[in-house]
Amino acid sequence: MRLWKSRVEKMVDAATAPVSNEAEVPLGESSGAGFVFRFLRKDKAALVGMAIGAVFFAFAAIEGILQIVGGYIRQQSLGWILLPSNPLQVDFHYSLFPPSLSSVAAILGFDYEGRSILSEILYAAPRDAAAAVIVVSSAILIGMLTGIAAGYTGGWADEILMRVTDAFLAFPAIFLAIALAILLGNGYTVVLIALVVVWWPPYARFFRAQTLRERNRGYVEASKLSGISSVRIMSRHIFPNTIDPIIAIASLDLGNVILTYSTLAFLGIGLQLNVPEWGSMTSDGLAYVPGAWWWTLFPALAIMLVVVCFSIIGDRIQDLVGGRLSY
């Protein structure tokens, strides 16, 4: 609960922090996504994080497409054409074989059913990557619509929208996600819906705070006097001024979503039958520790590696934005 509150407070602080008068004018080459990425290229830790993150998403996208196409044309083998071995094939001959250099499939060892740990980790990557992108983008969209509408409109609309937001924030995110997943049923889609439901409120708070700061600026008043509609003012003027902080927050949340999704899988929530998941692999391997330590260690390391990389990227972007905005 404390971590969830700190996440909300950090978003609100980022939006309500005072800015200098120079922020009233376009920042040109010193703002936007392009400037952020040029800055990150000069930081070795951030560069490594970006490289690993790019490889992770690129592989996940290609592997995910192959799995979807293979399922559509009923050629499941297409889903593991890039993998060392079939991640779904049971072969007790290799049951709990330790890591070895005898083959690529054996580098990380095998589980109880004789399936390659490396193949399972790679096969599960698209679902983790998709969960991160879908949940974060959906949360930003819902939070943007709710927060900007509440902050710009004010009055009873602001009161109602924020009280609804507070109702979701009143519960610890992980517990609410577990309750929703259990209530709605099992499956990957259900877990994504549960995560989106608990992920959007902090973004709504952030966008509202940002809108309250921007709506009394001179350019907004001038737009109103020019007869520009409220919808256009919110979409063309207020929203673009939130891009820099959102890049940092979203980068952190990509890792947070993967960690939360893996936690749910670790607890056995939202699992699909015979489909590898990093969290469930970590959980299944615990029963064989310390004898078969590799079964739980390597999936856990995969989760940690991805989460740390996105945390480094988000932290560096926050440092960058902090040069112009006080967090």
List the helices and strands and how they pair.
Blueprint lengths: L1 H15 L15 H9 L3 H29 L44 H37 L1 H15 L3 H12 L3 H27 L3 H8 L4 H9 L4 H24 L11 H9 L6 H29 L6
What does this structure look like?
The chain contains twelve helices and no strands. It has helices at 2-16, 32-40, 44-72, 117-153, 155-169, 173-184, 188-214, 218-225, 230-238, 243-266, 278-286, 293-321. Helix 10 packs antiparallel against helix 12. The protein starts with a helix and ends in a 6-residue tail after the last helix. The model is unreliable at 1-5 and 14-30 (pLDDT under 50).
Précis, in short:
Helix content is 68%, strand content 0%. By secondary structure, it is an all-alpha fold.
List keywords for this structure.
mainly alpha; 327 residues; 12 helices; disordered N terminus
Could you give the count of β-strands? 0
Strand content: under 5%
Largest sheet: none
Question: How helix-rich are the residues, as a percent range?
Answer: 55-70%
Structural class by secondary-structure content: mainly alpha
Amino- and carboxy-terminal Cα gap: 21 Å
Morphology call:
elongated
